Amino acid sequence: MPEYYLALAALLFCIGLVGAVSRRNLFVIYMSIELMLNAINLMLATFARAQNDHGGTVMALLLIAVIASEAAVFLSMIITLFRTNRTIDADFFTNLSQEQNP
Question: What is the overall mean pLDDT for the chain?
Fold first, then answer.
């Protein structure tokens, strides 16, 4: 039975990976990363259940807390970028450093 959960987690991770690599919209990239993190949570919970150990479940719960805080920071960054540039296209944000005037 754990094989089905692991196959589902692998499928979700692959879908998230394809979405993160192939899209240009920052929000879609963010959602793809979230999908990959949830796939990792499913794998941790599945391995913990198969081993009859609570360590993986505790780790998955801690990871959910980290994902929630990361979501708040990333969404606020997306909102700030949209307000300043009126786009969330990843190709628009190629220069990560500030340009200095000579």
Answer: 89
